[in-house]
């Protein structure tokens, strides 16, 4: 079977054997792991992962690829879920296949849906042991960015709240077919055993952060006008003249927790 990569699914298939080996070694799976691959494609990672772990669950939306995978793998070693990862309940999967255990997620994520997919996966953090993903390098830069840098923003804050993250390796376009027009990188994501900053109302925090970054070059006072007043800033020791990228994750959480309204803010 010759599969033509589909743009609507953001398909770029990994083919560099050296990069594949580096990723599998970074994951370092064994037979005790509950492995789930998102977007297995033509099985570049799938085959060596099964070779190390013995069994793998795969989430794949493309029915042609599902047919390809079923031709090449036994149902006992590869369990395929032909669904959209953006709508898939990973918590229910954990309950079904690994009661009391946590999932290990891995994948070359479709770049066209990577950000919403990361936000979707974040809600399942308590059921996840770790995640290793190939992403657009620019997205990984934003995920691991420090405060007061150009890459630091909403994605940095909302993911760093739930995960410790580190860049594993950078991957050039030539490692894929067809080569994407961007550089890629692999990131490791480890859910915090205990949240470093307890959040009173997650929806309020998400809306507050979104409102704060509506216009990056404007101050917190401007972007959060009508949401946070100067007295609330002062009570937390936060200068409202700062720009949103100057605040650390814990400061955003403190702001959200301090808001008296029980209704999530809308920017």
Description of the structure:
This protein is α/β, with parallel strands linked by helices. It folds into 2 domains: 7-191, Rossmann fold (3-Layer(aba) Sandwich); 202-258, rRNA adenine dimethylase, C-terminal domain (Helicase, Ruva Protein, domain 3, Orthogonal Bundle). It is 34% helix and 18% strand. The protein has a 7-stranded mixed sheet with strand order 4-3-2-5-6-9-7. Strands 1-8 form a two-stranded antiparallel ribbon. The longest helix has 11 residues, at 17-27. The relative contact order is 0.12. This is Ribosomal RNA small subunit methyltransferase A. GO terms for molecular function: 16S rRNA (adenine(1518)-N(6)/adenine(1519)-N(6))-dimethyltransferase activity. Belongs to the class I-like SAM-binding methyltransferase superfamily. rRNA adenine N(6)-methyltransferase family. RsmA subfamily. It catalyses: adenosine(1518)/adenosine(1519) in 16S rRNA + 4 S-adenosyl-L-methionine = N(6)-dimethyladenosine(1518)/N(6)-dimethyladenosine(1519) in 16S rRNA + 4 S-adenosyl-L-homocysteine + 4 H(+).
């Amino acid at each position: 079977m010759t599969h033509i990569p589909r743009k609507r699914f953001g398909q770029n298939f990994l083919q560099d054997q050296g990069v594949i080996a580096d990723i599998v070694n970074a994951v370092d799976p064994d037979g005790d792991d509950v492995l789930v691959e998102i977007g297995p494609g033509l099985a570049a990672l799938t085959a060596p992962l099964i070779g190390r772990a013995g069994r793998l669950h795969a989430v794949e939306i493309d029915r042609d690829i599902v047919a390809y995978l079923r031709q090449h793998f036994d149902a006992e070693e590869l369990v395929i879920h032909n669904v959209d990862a953006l709508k898939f309940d990973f918590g229910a999967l954990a309950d079904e296949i690994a009661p009391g255990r946590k999932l290990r997620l891995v994948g070359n994520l479709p770049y066209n849906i990577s950000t919403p997919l990361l936000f979707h996966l974040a809600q399942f953090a308590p059921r996840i042991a770790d995640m290793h993903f190939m992403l657009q390098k620019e997205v990984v830069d934003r995920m691991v960015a420090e405060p007061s840098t150009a890459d630091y923003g909403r994605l940095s804050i909302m993911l760093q709240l739930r995960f410790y993250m580190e860049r594993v390796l950078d991957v050039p376009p030539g490692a894929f077919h067809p080569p994407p027009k961007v550089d890629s990188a692999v990131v490791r994501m480890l859910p915090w055993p205990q949240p470093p900053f307890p959040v009173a109302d997650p929806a309020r925090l998400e809306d507050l952060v979104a409102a704060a970054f509506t216009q990056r070059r404007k101050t917190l006072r401007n972007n959060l006008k009508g949401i946070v007043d100067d007295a609330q800033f002062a009570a937390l020791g936060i200068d409202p003249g700062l720009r949103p990228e100057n605040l650390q994750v814990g400061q955003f959480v403190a702001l959200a927790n301090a808001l008296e309204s029980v209704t999530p803010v809308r920017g």
